[in-house]
Amino acid sequence: MCCRFYTEPADPQIHAFLEQVNRSPLADRFRRSSVQPVPASGEINPSAVVPVIALSRGWKRSVFPMKWGFSMNGASGKGAGKLLINARSESAAEKPMFRESWAKRRCVIPASWYFEWEHQVLGNGKKKAGQKYAIRPRGQKVTWLAGLYRMEGEFPVFTILTRDPSEDVRWMHDRMPLMLPESDINAWISPDEDPESVSRAAVLALAFEKA
Question: How confident is the model over 5-64, as pLDDT tens digits?
């Protein structure tokens, strides 16, 4: 899964994305409706507004401010008020919440790395969060997280896709975000491309360190 990630504002690519969305009218609308920084950088939590790569209405690759998390409209009980921050890539095409976005509204979230906590299994079978790690593709400074987006009212929101873990991090957790090589960003966000085929090029070689 992915419930935290980090964007390093000093990184030239990340800085350029932050600068671009800061100038957008959409960022101004977010600012008027939220007390959170728009766009956010540093350690990113669910509900933060960050730069996201997607196609514009003119089918041009662009960067937009988007809020992290699909609202669980109509949910009651424990689900009320919660955000869906992750979607399983294996089942997104069939889930009513995600299938239209899977087909038509895919996006990429630039990050420096993502965070994961080692899941430890206790003697009673319950899981406990252990050491926190910062993880990114081996040899890369930017991590390209594959996601889906949709409109909620006048604002775009996104969720991050997850998949089975690679051998590098399988010992740590049973899920990891779907990460793409930079060369596949255009294919991923294009509705003319098959997302299942593009996702097969997911980055699997990962580096990590204690955070």
Answer: 999 999 999 999 999 999 999 999 999 998 778 999 999 999 999 999 999 999 999 999
The SS3 of residue 50 is strand
Confidence of residue 75 (pLDDT cuts 50, 70, 90): very low
What is residue 190's DSSP assignment? -
User: What is the DSSP annotation of 94-119?
Assistant: T-TTTHHHHHH-EEEEEESEEEEEEE
Q: Which tens digit of pLDDT belongs to each residue from 82-93? A: 899 999 999 999
Convert the pLDDT of each residue in 113-129 to its tens digit.
999 999 877 767 677 78
**Domain of 180, in residue numbers:** 5-210
Number of domains forming the structure of the chain: 1
Tokens representing 64 are: 């937009």
- Which residues are registered as beta bridge partners of 149? 158
CA distances from 99 to 9, 91, 92, 95, 199 (A): 33, 9, 6, 6, 15
Q: Residue 93, by phi and psi: left (phi above 0), alpha (psi -120 to 50) or beta? A: alpha
Q: What is the CATH number of the domain that holds 25?
A: 3.90.1680.10
DSSP character at residue 77: G
Any idea what DSSP says for residue 165?
A: P
